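[job 4471] stage=fold_predict status=RUNNING
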Amino acid sequence: MVSVGARTVAAMAKTAPAYRCGECGWSTSKWVGRCGECQAWGSLDEVGAGGATSLAPGPVTRPARPIGAVGLEAARSRPTGVDEFDRALGGGLVQGAVVLLAGEPGVGKSTLLLEVAACWASTAGLALYVTGEESAAQVRLRAERTAALADGLFLAAETDLAAILGQVEQVKPSLLVVDSVQTVSRADTDGAPGGVTQVREVAAALIRVAKDRGIATILVGHVTKDGSIAGPRVLEHLVDVVLQFEGERHSRLRLVRTVKNRYGAADEVGCFDLSDTGITSMPDPTGLFLSRHADAVPGTCITVTLEGRRPLLAEVQALVAPSSLGTPRRATSGLDASRVAMVLAVLDRRGGVSLSGQDVYAATVGGARLAEPAGDLALMVAVASGARNLPLPPGLVAIGEVGLAGEIRRVTGIQRRLAEAERMGFTRALVPPEPGPVPAGIRAVEVGDVAAALDAARRPAPVVSLR
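[job 4471] inference complete, writing structure tokens
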């Protein structure tokens, strides 16, 4: 028999309000300031006890039309005037599109977007640049230094959402840049600027204005220590395009990598050269990743990596020296340390190159980062060349993935890689078996395992070019 008190408790449990995290969906019976699952602050909202069982139809904002009658002009992209930025966007900015550009502090986000806004104001229409991190005078000084002044470029220093919307109403721009979304706050929303709730509400309001008025909008986003975009994850779902701005502090090269794009390919990369005088597009950045040697040097090998759809030549250097330590050192720069360790183990076991008691230092040139497996073969050949102190023949590139059994595996985009190598003047290539059609100006050496690759790299033999 159930007591009256037990029934009362059960009834209260059924009607008690629940709270659900807007980030991960974790729920609890009472409100807490921090989610117990994803540790996000201020992300719990009350969920109603019950909803209506039926929903009456409401007024239609726009009547449905046959898909063939839908116009395409609103979805066509307009070039910004910055070629590499347009390449990453898939051709340019679309009317009403919202772009999120994220990157580490000091990488050059503000410099790039100021250049984009100036070029847009000179060719496409009015542009409004809203800064929440600097004063208007600071932005003006940067614009003079980088020659990013234009009559159609308007500048405002605002951190209040209502004030930004007032600026939009007054200027009526066709491009809006907000630097950054974490510094803007909404007066009727709880939380500090940059918090989860504030970022979500501010971004939602700006996206709604962009869609209603057809304003191309670029939002600057901060990143966390692990490189992910700060703020709620839903922010990346709300926007149309997500771009990641990357670059080493000690290198002039900057990459704009497309993470999400509703209007084009999501694997494009734009290359830029950042200097004291501004940021410029680099349609051919391969020269940054290659060093120039008067004579052949042991321990160097060239490979072709794919950054998005763009093939780039990269040089892998390896230095092998006797170790004075009980445990030899393995140091890397620009390469994945675990993958380097795997290639060294395969080279020792399958290739007959003893590396016990040897320190191995492996690095790339020009700040390039090789994360894909296609650089395994070049790394292995470079280490073997350094260990034997024998330079590789000139004009040689190596492309392929190395397996634990010593086999050389095929990689994607082999034709594009070889075409880029031929364009840069290389004449021979170590490739996996059955590479398909090969450019006429380059000779392909098919290598099926580690031993064949080392033999072909050490003693070049006449090779019949595949057609």
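[job 4471] summary: Residues 8-15, 461-467 have pLDDT under 50 and may be disordered.
[job 4471] exit 0
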